[in-house]
Amino acid sequence: MTGKKEDFVIAGKIHGTHGVRGDLKIEIFPPNLKLPEVIYIKDKEGNLVPLYVEAYSKKKNLIKFKGYDDLDKAKKIKHRYFYIESSKLPELDKDQFYEYQLLDMDVVYNGKIIGKIVKVDDRLSTAYLIIKCADEKIRHIPFINEFVKDVDLENKKLIVELPEGWFSL
User: Fold this and answer.
1) Domain membership of residue 72 as a residue range
2) 78: pLDDT strictly greater than 90
3) Do 29 and 85 touch, CB atoms closer than 8 A?
4) For labelling alongside 48, which of 5, 38, 79, 96 has CA 20 to 30 A away?
């Protein structure tokens, strides 16, 4: 394994088995991800364990790993998230970000840190940043240019301009 745990991100999920030859159903999260030859799952202690891709069908969302050539072996790794090195993620456009880049980022308003991003809710047409504020309240802000003025990945800071009354929510 190369790199530190922090250099790895969840890239998808291995679902149930398919057939008797060790094939597994797979879901890949980042669009346009070219699946690397090695992906990782976590063992019970949280260590990253490599899985070597033997065959992958993007059309059928099926994957097979070297050494997992029967149903019993494949069952041992089903229903698990898999990780890849963050350097293997596809490049995004200038104003696009991966969730892992935003999590734990300081939220800055009028020069003061007002909280941290604890979650990104992207189930609606507009993503919402879930922020745990200094007053321990959880507040939401739409991830749109009107409110988010700058995303500083290097310093893990998000500069915002907030709507009136936001703090009284």
Assistant:
1) 5-88
2) yes
3) no
4) 96
Tokens linked to 57: 């069908």
- Mean pLDDT value across residues 104-119: 96
CA distance 56 to 35: 9
Contacts of 38 by beta carbon, 8 Å cutoff, 6+ apart: 50, 51, 52, 53
Tell whether 83 and 108 lie within a shared domain. Answer: no
The structural domain count of the chain equals 2
Contacts of 126 (CB under 8 A, 6+ apart): 142, 143, 144
Q: Is the domain of 73 the same as that of 12?
A: yes
Pairwise CA distance, residues 125 & 42, whole Å: 32
- Cβ atoms of 158 and 105 within 8 Å: the answer is yes
- What are the residues facing 108 on neighbouring strands? 113, 159
DSSP code of residue 146 = T
Cα 91 to Cα 88: distance, rounded to the nearest angstrom: 9
Percent of the chain with pLDDT over 90: 71
